[in-house]
Amino acid sequence: MNDAQTWIAAFLTLCVFSFLYRDNPFYRFAEHLFVGAAAGYLLATQYQNVILPNVIGPLMAPKIQASGIVLTLIPAMLGILLLLRVFPRLTAPARWALAFYVGVYSGIAVTGYMQAQVIAQIADSVKPFEGGWHAVNSILILIGLLTVLAYFFFSAPHTGLHGLSARVGIWFLMVAFGASFGYTVMARVSLLISRVQFLLRDFLHWIPGVVS
Amino acid sequence: MSWAQRLLSVDRRIIFVLIGLGTAIPLLMPVNLPITVTPRVEAAYQTIDTLPEGSRVLISMDYEPDTMAELNPMAIAIMRHCFRKKLKVIGMTLYPAGPGLVEPAMKAAAAAEGKTRNVDYVFLGYKSGFQTVMIGMGESIRQQYPVDFYKTPLDSIPVMRGVNSYAGIDLVVNLTASSAADYWIQFAASRFKKKLVLGATAVMATDYYPYLSSRQLLGLIGGMKGAAEYEKRMDLFGDARRGMDAQSLVHVIVSLLVILGNVALFASRRSGGDGTPARPLGGPR
Fold first, then answer.
1. Most buried residue, A182, B81, B273, B278, by most Cβ within 10 Å?
2. ipTM for the complex?
3. Integer CA distances (angstroms), A104 to A88, A156, B132, in order
4. Which pTM does this prediction carry?
């Protein structure tokens, strides 16, 4: 980044941080600028990377064949149909494109999900215990799996052995949520550290550069 | 007003100041607290380290500015590792704002290790559509990316010679802040049986532990802490390691505030209050 870019970035960072004191025009300016710039950037990028190479480029190609035109125009038409949702009277054709999209996506997602997230995970859950102290981990995983499943089984009342399992399951869930929350705090602090690093290093030059 | 109620009513801006100081002071006066490399990061490191020289590593850097704090240091450390091991890096991104971050990161890593574009690495650029790109690359990378980010045809790039699908790639690394990780697991790891290493933001890291156990992931680098561990393993001192002192101090402050808040809450209830904060002292309601 050159000096002008650094100054702009630092100014906008401070504008956003000013919200911590209270809502103010500087914060709102940065917020609106971000929304506008992001929308414009996204539009330009999608045009350059999607519309231009997939629609305009092939149609303008000097040696395009009839099959190429058809294969380009059908997806383009489906895309245009999606936009018809903005006209209340034309929402039905918009749903055709949506139905096509949902059908294709489901076909792709269901097989991939079953293969990677369901079957592979079940296979890993029922594998034999490892030897030594690793067996403790395996036992914990097994107990956690069964008790959490018991907690989410609502077709029977949570009483007796089922109730006990469900209560143990809640403890496993709480530990998982705690770990997740700890990581979330770390993630948010990381974002702050990055911005403060930028202000102290790139803007104020109070700490050394990044080269290691 | 009792001390407990006073504490519960403290102006939130005081907490912001504490967090701000807890972040800035360690950056200005680092003490370099020790960092332990966890088995998950060590596994990621070893997966790359044991690849034979000349192996192709596909790194999909699927992140944008909002999560660059965690993932950019990770990307630079991993790419530098690849370059040191004389591996060929194929970079790409599935996020529209990705190229603005990934291209400088690749250039920085290559410059630090004295590597040349197109000979040692290539940046394919951004391509829209998560699953379609991942599946398409299983059939033909050139169909998805006829040219690289700089509009150079892939056929004329030495790194891409003989690489036309996952078959020509030895390892896939995904650095992401989104569900792109799920898709890489579904398609690259499960369907195309490629070795996969994941670098994720801290928020999502715990969701992917089960995939380590099932060996669908060969390594997992979680958040800035994971990046710092990788930098330490690489003997680098990048942004992630520089930030870990601040990370530790802020965690101490947050933990103390949580404990203090709960003590005040219980004390307030014991003295007959309902634990509801009174009007914040000097702050907005």
1. B81
2. 0.87
3. 25, 37, 10
4. 0.89
